[in-house]
Amino acid sequence: MSRTLSLLAACLLLLAACGSNEQPTLVGPTSSASAAPQLGEATTAPSASPPVSPSPKVSPPPRNGNPGGGAAVPADAKAVDTAHPNHVIGDGTPASCTSEAVVAAVAAGGITTFKCGSAPVTITMKTTAKVRNAHGPKIVLDGGGLVTLSGGGKRRILYMNTCDEKQGWTTSHCQDQETPQLVVQNMTFADGNSTGDTTEGGGGGAIFDRGGRLKIVNSRFVRNKCDSTGPDLGGAAVRALSQYHNLPVYVVGSTFDGGICSNGGALSSIGVSWSVINSLFTNNSAIGRGANPAKANTPGGGSGGAIYLDGNLFTLTLAGTRIENNKANEGGGAVFFVSNDRTGTMRIDHSVLRKNKSLGFQNFPGIFFLGAKDPTVVSSTVSS
């Protein structure tokens, strides 16, 4: 009996020596007890076993756009789940969140989140972050409502172009391919400037996207710029071209403020459909002159104070959205919509468009529209 008790005591001592009150260290949302993921390095896939301890509660990011809009958001337009990112930028300090880190993560593709501390942080981009077309299929940036990417008034912030050979061709039909798909959510884009960049005709002070799909959710665009003159370029915040199968660019719960460009002080495209939901456009300006085609002895431009859309078959839906206090030197203080073959359509649903100045021409309050039929207006205010 004493021998048995001695063995038992020894085993208990061994267990006590091997045991510990410390829990495994979890670094980042998807890593285990390993070092924090480096830039461009995929984090470890989560274990199928239950977590050792409950995940800390994360406050939802602040809401942008028009929170009272109330329009339903289709499943395809909702934010991407970023609980298991491929890349985490930062080690918890503002200094660790750098332009170089953003550029590397965007080039690597996949889902990127930020760990820059609990306070808002601004990352001033030293170079434009560019999507590599073979990476993805999704490229997602989620700032958690705390991260601003700034162009510093000097450069475009984010660029994707499926037809740009320098970023790699992945199909023989670059103008109509499903991927990559670029998603920005819970971010701020400030002081982007694409002035002088004539790639694909220019425009897109904060974001330029040709091909694949583009989606913008709960994000804010402020003080972005593109060229001040030109008949058909535009999009101080966003320029979009050649979306897959003409599926719409979704803009959900987002704010566009203080953008300046020749056309489209916020958004611009050629032949692209848009679905703008619960968003806000204010204080944007189209500052070109001479319209499109440019009048004699003018450089052209000046249309679409907030939104400038041109092309053939495309649609624009404004749902739960406010567009106010925007200005165009020529046509459409709020929206310029010209479907050249008159097949395009526009729907304004539970939205408010008011106090948008068209200094040149309009055929509806704050709107210049040429399409298949007059805009469909449902439970909305459209006034001067």
Structure description:
- This protein has one domain.
- It has helices spanning 2-18, 99-108; strands at 87-89, 110-114, 121-124, 129-130, 138-150, 158-161, 181-190, 207-210, 213-217, 220-222, 238-241, 249-252, 255-257, 260-261, 267-270, 274-277, 280-282, 285-286, 307-311, 315-319, 322-324, 327-328, 335-339, 345-349, 352-354, 357-358, 367-370, 376-378, 381-382.
- 7% of the residues lie in helices and 31% in strands.
- Residues 1-56 have low confidence and may be disordered.
- The protein starts with a helix and ends with a strand.
- Strand 1 (87-89), helix 2 (99-108) and strand 2 (110-114) form a beta-alpha-beta unit.
- It is mainly beta and 384 residues long.
Compact overview of the structure:
With 384 residues, this protein is mainly beta. The chain has one domain. It is 7% helix and 31% strand.
Give the tags.
29 strands; 2 helices; 384 residues; eight-stranded parallel β-sheet; 17-stranded parallel β-sheet; mainly beta
Write the layout of secondary structure elements.
Layout: H1 2-18, E1 87-89, H2 99-108, E2 110-114, E3 121-124, E4 129-130, E5 138-150, E6 158-161, E7 181-190, E8 207-210, E9 213-217, E10 220-222, E11 238-241, E12 249-252, E13 255-257, E14 260-261, E15 267-270, E16 274-277, E17 280-282, E18 285-286, E19 307-311, E20 315-319, E21 322-324, E22 327-328, E23 335-339, E24 345-349, E25 352-354, E26 357-358, E27 367-370, E28 376-378, E29 381-382
Parallel strand pairs: 1-2, 2-5, 3-5, 4-6, 5-7, 6-8, 7-9, 7-10, 8-11, 9-12, 10-13, 11-15, 12-16, 13-17, 14-18, 15-19, 16-20, 17-21, 18-22, 19-23, 20-24, 21-25, 22-26, 23-27, 24-28, 25-29
